[in-house]
Every structure is written in structure tokens, then in C-alpha cells.
Amino acid sequence: MTDDYPALRRRCAQALADDGQFTDPWVRPAIENVPREAFVPPRFWIKAKREDGGYPLIDRDTNPETWATTVYTPGRALITQMDDGATAPADGAAGRFTSSLSELRVVARQLSHLALERGHNVLHIGTGSGYDCALMAERTPADHVTTVEIDELLAADARRNLTAAGYGDVRTVCGDGEQGRPQGGPYDRVLCTASAMRVPSAWIDQTAPGGVILTPYRGLALARLVVSANGKTASGPIVDGMTFMTLRGQRGADAADMSPVINATLSDSDKTRTDVDLSPLEAELGAEFLLHALVPGMRGFFGESTWWFEAHDGASWAAWKRDGRVRQWGPRRLVDEAAQAVTTWRKAGAPALTDLGVTVGPEGERLWAHGPGGPSWDAEYRQPDPHAGAVETRTECT
Length: 398
Fold this sequence. Notes:
Strand order of the largest sheet: 7-6-5-8-9-10-11-17-18-19
Strand content: 25-35%
Number of strands: 19
Largest sheet: 10 strands, mixed
Distance between the termini: 56 Å
Shape: globular
């Protein structure tokens, strides 16, 4: 039945358990107890792009059964805002996703990595609808949870949702999450539910020594950092692969469609060859992550036989074919840069994503492989968001 939400929660939790998503025991009862439907707006989109470029809208008033089952589908993200609220909910609307409720399997894994204990003081970045805060308030007192949301309307909605669901003691603040919330610190745990392209120093400053900062990192990874005894640095491994929307202050502008530039300059491009096999960028998350971190300002598109690389500033592009043929145009040699990233990955022992980690401090961010004493590299901060404005198709290059 549509209104039997407790049964939907139980079935969803069992599906998550059967899939091995709970690695910390408190997370399952939290998901079973918190009414997720109270944190979901009446209308939301699902990430299933249609041929017309738009996204299907799920409307509780017109299709309550589908709405309810979708809310408790473990592998379904619910898109609650496009274009920072400028695009109104409508069937087939297209735009940039700017707020969502993450897939429940992602929520379960992320909270399990947090290692939240009773009595912990928590700073949460990216309130959204307030659902994650309610889950954490099942583990630690609600008045020990401070959440910061940059969008004033989202913050107000979350405050109402939390109060109506019985978690009104959560401190919901409208502000820039990159600045944290020093008034509530120090914190034992900092949880960010947006992807950080760089880890803000304010999070380290506001976390107690030995405390944990858990954040999606550079578009692909979930980093779990422990703050040092002197409170100056934070270091730790990549513990999972996860993709989240980027923090608003770090996401940059949409990257332009390079197709017209490519078409206009194809005949002027340099034709070369390379012996470096770039295929690990498609098959190995560790290699792709190092590409994102070590080659700033570039995005890639993996076609069946041709791969395209484009600079975000629109001044350079390149194409690589699996037989080694290369075309490059502009001041940057993008295939050469990608090949160097793959070579670096191989020389480091071809690390998997979870073999990598990061240390953050006053000197910046340093990536490492196989522990902090292993191979390491300075990580550059890059804008815009590598997932923003992506063009999903490219023609084959001859």
C-alpha cells in the first residue's frame, strides 16, 4: 500500500543489508526508523535522461504509488533542484542538478564510514532536505548535530522537515559550508555530502584532534581524513568510490561545448602517435582519479574507438584512438598530459582507488599511494566541475 511507509522502509533496509551496504550496525535501524518520505518534496526528478534531453518527473499527487516506491528504491537518487532553483519542477525539464537525496545505498555506505558514536558532536555540510541529519540524530543527540546549507530556501525547508519529523533540535544554519560553523565546534565528526575539489582549512581548524572529516573528494572518491594531534593537518585514505554534486563555491561555471571548435580546427590539428595505452583511464578508478587530480582543467569522453580530451577554457582539444593515433590542437597537449598521468599511475604500482589517500595542511594537498610514505604528488585544484556541462556524445575521429 502507498501509505505503508514502515513496510517500505523495512524492505529497503533488508535489500541494503542483502547487498552488504551496512558495515556499521547503527545505520540500518536509523534507516528503518527515519521517515524518508517526510524529507522528499512532492515532485522530484530521477536521473534517467530521455531522448529529448529532459528528465522524468515523479509527482506524488498524480502517481502516489510510483512516488512512494521510488523514495525507497535503494539505487535511485532523487533530484530535488535544478539550476539552483531557477528551473521549476516539470516533466522533461533539463538543467544542472544542484540538490538531491542521494541513493540510499550511497547514504548507508557513507554513514558507515563515518564511525559515528553516541555523544559525538557533528558538523554536516550540505543540508539538502535534512534527511542525513535525521539519520545521524538517531545515533547522537539531535542537539549535537549542526548542519550548514548555502541555499536559503533549502535550509528553511530542511528546518521544517526536521521539526515535523521530530528532529527539531538539529541546528540548521544557512551559510557557506566551506567556512564550517565555528560556534558549534570543536567537532568529533565532519560530514560533507557534496564533493570537495579541495578540503577547506576551516574544517580542519574546527575538528578536534583525532576527529574525522569524511567528504566526497574530487568528483570520484570518498576521503576519510583524521585530524592530527596538533590540529594543523588531516590525512587519510580514499575509502570508497562516490560521485556527488560539487560544493557550490568550488564548482565553477559550466564547461562549454567544444564541438564547434573541434569541427573548425580538425584540419589544423597535429597528427602524432603514442605508445602509451590510455585504457586504464576507463577501466581503473585509481588511474582516472589521478588524471582528475594531476591534470587540471580537462575533461574526457570515452567513445568506442576514439577518446576526446578537452580543456575547460575551450583553447585545446585532443583525440586518442586505441591503435595509438593522436590528434591534438591548441596550446596544451592534452593526450600527452593524460599519458603522463597514466605513466605516473603505473610507476606507483597501478594503485586501486582505495590504495590512494590525501594529506591536507598549510602547504596544500598531497596525494599518496600505498600509505603516506609511498609515492606522492601535489594535487592541483581545478575548476570548473568535471561533471558540469558534459557533452555525452562525440563522433569518431579518423
